[in-house]
Write a structure and sequence with these properties.
mainly alpha; 2 helices; about 50% helix
Length: about 90
């Protein structure tokens, strides 16, 4: 996994945590000290992850490798081309 993939996975988990804390708040009420601490901790985690995303090094993607077959090319591909420095195949050099 790349760093970006890991950060995205953590973001999804934090989003799930925030949704779960919201459901929990609805059940137990938002006025208790414990639930306020949990909400504050979840918010701090989200802020910390946002800061981490901003300071994370940018990953450079590698160009995609293109396999080149060992078989010879079809000679029909070269039927109407000039040979470098020699001119056309059906003409003579001056």
């Amino acid at each position: 996994m790349s760093l970006n993939d890991d950060l995205t996975a953590v973001q999804r988990c934090l989003d799930d945590l925030v949704r779960s804390v919201s459901r929990l708040e609805q059940r137990v009420g938002a006025g208790g000290l414990e639930i306020r601490r949990v909400r504050t901790d979840a918010d701090h985690l989200r802020e910390s992850l946002a800061l981490l995303r901003e300071t994370a090094p940018v990953e450079r993607s590698r160009p995609e490798m293109v396999p080149v077959p060992d078989a010879p090319y079809d000679s029909a591909l070269w039927s109407d081309v000039d040979d470098e420095g020699l001119g056309a195949r059906d003409r003579h050099a001056p």
